Amino acid sequence: MKLREVKPEIRVLGIDDGYYGPEDDRALVVGVVMRGGQWIDGVMSTEVTVDGLDVTDRIAEMVNRSKHRPQLRVILTDGITFAGFNVLDIKKLHEETGLPVISVIKRRPDVASVVSALSNLDRTEERRKIVLRAGPVHSVKTRRDEPPVYFQCAGVEPDVARVVLKRTATRHRLPEPIRVAHFIATGVTKGESSSDA
Fold it and tell me: Which InterPro entries does this chain map to?
């Protein structure tokens, strides 16, 4: 699906993971369906392996089996690492769901540091390729008096992704669907949500 027009109530899926402890081998991942950055239409979830390599497949399954799938126009994720270093392949997720994917990061990522940290895990080369495959890092100021957010995207042009991010950042510089997914995921896994996505 080619995203050309970004309506104010564009159906967006925001995804983030919850808390997991050192003894946990699985982590909760929550998706929140919103109309723009205003109304919640639904919630979905899955689990992924801590420091595994299953996040792309698990999120694709979660999206494709959802009753909300026909309405969705774009997927927003909180970065490309979930449950430690379970690295999301945004290009593969785009291919498997047919939806544009925008991975949002609060601070400019240090790709070299991420790649270096991966050397402590199994299947290092596979993880490294996924990180590099995410493509160039872009930026956008979603709120006038706040710092920019950074993003990588698949299946959507950066200029269109910027419009999506501005439309969905209604109360914070991060898109509201990601923030709500974070609140739900941490609230469920910690018993109370943390304030910062």
Answer: Endo_dU (IPR002802)
